[in-house]
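Running this now, will post back.
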Amino acid sequence: MGGFACYMDSATQTYLNLPEVRKALHIPDSVQPWVDCNIPVNSQYYHQQNHDMTPVFQSIIDSGYTLKMLVYNGDVDMACNFLGDEWFVENLAGSVYNFTLLSDRFAWNYTRGSFLPQLGGYVKSWNYSTISMDLLTVKGAGHFVPTDRPGPALQMIYNFIYTGNYNNSVPYSLNAQPLLQQYVAPPQPSFTRKQADRVWTLPGVTYELNFKQYSGYLNGVPGNYLHYWLLESQTNPQTDPLVLWLNGGPGCSSLMGLLSELGPFHPNSDGMTLFENVYSWNKAANMLFLESPRNVGFSTQNMSINPDTVYNDEKVI
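Update: finished.
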């Protein structure tokens, strides 16, 4: 199904720390080298406030907003196994609330092109007031579903976004673009903020890109500079939805999700070049990858402006 080889961690770190890549992504020289997870944040500093997500889900459900929810797992995930999420959602649906069961657990199929359908996983659906919730597994996927099963993962997110049957195949081309013989950077005029953040040419991309991308810093809290990487939709960026991707950990970079799971390109084993991921989620949506909290990945903190040393759920963004 087009899974990604196991060298992804080291190759991603090598690629993102290439000087020309940092320059292309507008990363200042003063910012620390990129690593996939900030171990001190993960193991020493982070104060996890919500060990049970029930109150968080209750606040979302009780908000009155019209929302669609998708809880998905790889069925061979050894880090966050699907049974834990199944028990959580079943308790939420049957004990905390009285959700209406729309469809009991049934198999959904993944289909690529003219090939025969194959089992994609299982899904169960409910609704409650203005909320709909799907509980879905992806067969054969581990902790990084789009890494292990990129085709089924793209079909899953496409049908979730557009409220389709999960058996529906995606309407996108899955043929890789021809390789480029050489790379030519476009001229760079005087820039607006948006133009300044645009990634005009990304080193090592081995095919012609058909979407725009932007990388820079968001400064919502004085002294905190959170790095973002926005990849516009390959289909219709003006009307397609925006998906915000935040990796867990805590203290792990969302660029691992971009470059090793669901982004449009993955690093080759040399850590210098990128090949096309034909199952990229930005075929269905504009994808925003935000590295949070501060000091994770390329995100940084000016301690003279913001001396805060506390990491918790409320300060993730």
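The chain has one domain: 8-315. More later if anyone needs it.
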